[in-house]
Design goal:
alpha+beta, OB fold (Dihydrolipoamide Acetyltransferase, E2P), 8-stranded mixed β-sheet, binds 4-amino-1,4-dioxobutan-2-aminium adenosine-5'-monophosphate, binds magnesium ion
Length: 477
């Protein structure tokens, strides 16, 4: 007999059918009622055990966390809280779970405790819901780009170049750290290393994606990226997944349109397809907000926030306009910002981004035309000679969710920029080739997948939306 899953059965009206189910015990009450879950949905199905005809020794082993197999009949439920239940005829314990030792008891655990038990936290409702939504979002990403004529491009993970020029990279080496080969100057001789040069884990697949966009037209990457920045915040990971579309012939306006349409599309997908998980996460979000000081509480529920994103245009503002708004803002005048805004040209901190989104515009914002000095070398220089065609999408509660730009397609200007910044042309000869042979306007952006999952699930800490977070001093599991 084939095995059913809980999601199917909860929606079934095919009563009296014999079913065969396997899953894990959530709770066992009154020696009779098992709440069984198998991962197919956030909901557990009630399974009623005929305790008079079941061995005492079996009943004792039906504990929270135990894996069981059962046979029974699907019946209409007379009890409150569920429409259907299973009248169990046969039960088998597949794997015991000692209640004295099992950390995930049916009670509220702190997120910190669950992070230390990341291998088991997925068995809670919260993490089950978050990770099912994460999976749905990932599918929605591929669906969106495939539907819109993009090719999925697999960027290399080991690279010899530093795409963002920020230098926050993990090295990849097989040299003996205790006794590396050295050159005449006494420096480590990477020509003896595995790749014959110093290599890193990629911080972004963009530069390689650009080369593919210049032939396939529209491509996107969706893969892991790595940053050795020592940021212990609720929005930074050392290993995170990034989605990077790159489109030939798109200018910055097209790029903004794409980012906005893409984000709206994947959020709509989840609203349509993850109803049970989102209902649970919405209730959780409302409870969490209640524990915050009134001033910091979200005015909207999670589901209202998601609908708000879909129903409203993102406001597009230049960096220069944003600086004026920030300079004249109350927190700047009253010196409430940690970093005060004084001059044009300073980089924005997340407190400024969140002020613009949450207090000033009260909707997602796309900031563009940033000072060249605070952005990467590959961004297209504007005619004013001091700003570049950069764009950041800023979201409530998150700050920057997308960073992108129109790329500098003019070889001479790109070369000058690289030389000003001390970037060796020899390292990026292949990148410069795209500007030598059939160069054209093109644009792209990177969206931090975990920040999107954070926003969509309402989780406050990025460590709770990736299965095994990597952060400074932490690579357990
Ligand atoms: O703004 P970033 O650094 O842009 C790039 O890497 C470009 N090469 C993208 C492109 O144009 N193809 O990063 C893009 C996004 C950020 O907006 C943020 O959402 C996310 O990646 N991100 C991080 N997410 C989690 N942890 C970190 N340490 C992150 N750093 C960036
Ligand atoms: Mg950025």
């Amino acid at each position: 007999m084939t095995r059913s899953n809980v999601a199917e059965l909860l929606n079934s009206t095919n009563f009296s059918q014999e079913v065969n189910l396997k899953g894990w015990v959530r709770t066992f009450r009154a020696n009779r009622f098992i709440a069984l879950s198998d991962g197919s949905t956030i909901n557990a199905i009630q399974c009623v055990v005929d305790f008079e005809n079941t061995d005492e020794s079996i009943l004792k082993r039906i504990t929270t966390g135990a894996a069981i197999a059962l046979k029974g009949i699907l019946v209409e439920s007379l009890g409150k809280g569920q429409n259907v239940e299973i009248k169990v005829s046969k039960i088998e314990i597949l794997g015991d779970s000692n209640p004295e030792e099992y950390p995930i008891q049916p009670k509220k655990h702190s997120l910190e405790f669950l992070r230390e038990n990341a291998h088991l936290r997925i068995r809670t409702n919260t993490f089950g819901a978050v990770m099912r939504v994460r999976s749905a979002l990932s599918f929605a990403v591929h669906k969106y780009f495939t539907k819109n004529g993009f090719y999925n491009f697999h960027a290399p993970i080991i690279t010899g170049s530093d795409a963002e020029g920020a230098g926050e990279m993990f090295n990849v080496t097989t040299l003996d750290a205790n006794n590396p080969p050295r050159n005449e100057e006494g420096k480590i001789d990477y020509s003896k290393d595995f790749f014959g040069k110093l290599t890193h884990l990629t911080v972004s697949g963009q530069l390689e994606a650009e080369t593919y966009a210049m032939a396939l037209g529209k491509v996107y990457t969706f893969g892991p990226t790595f940053r050795a920045e020592n940021s212990n915040t609720t929005r930074h990971l050392a290993e995170f997944w990034m989605i990077e579309p790159e489109v030939a012939f798109n200018n910055l306006d097209d790029n903004m349109d794409l980012a906005e349409d893409f984000i709206k599309s994947v959020i709509s997908y989840v609203l349509k397809n993850c109803k049970d998980d989102l209902t649970f996460l919405n209730d959780r979000f409302i409870q969490e907000e209640k524990s915050k000081p009134v001033m910091e509480r979200s005015e909207m529920s999670l589901i209202e926030k998601l609908n708000f994103i879909i129903d409203n245009n993102f406001t597009r503002v230049t960096y220069t306009e944003a600086i004026d708004i920030l300079k004249n803002s109350t927190p700047n005048k009253k010196k409430k910002f940690k970093y005060l805004i004084e001059d044009w040209g300073t980089d924005l901190q997340s407190e400024h981004e969140r002020y613009l989104v949450e207090k000033h515009f009260k909707c997602p914002v796309i900031l563009y035309d940033y000072p060249a000095k605070i952005k990467a070398f590959y961004m297209r220089l504007n005619d004013d000679g001091k700003t570049v065609r950069a764009m950041d999408v800023l979201f409530p509660g998150i700050g920057e969710i997308v960073g992108g730009s129109q790329r500098e397609e003019r070889l001479d200007i790109l070369q000058k920029k690289m030389s000003d910044l001390g970037i060796d042309e020899k390292e990026l000869w292949w990148y410069l080739d795209t500007r030598k042979f059939g160069t054209a306007v093109h644009s792209g952006f990177g969206l931090g997948f975990e920040r999107l999952v954070q926003f969509t699930t309402g989780m406050g800490n990025i460590r709770d939306v990736i299965p095994y977070p990597r952060t400074p001093q932490n690579a357990e599991f």
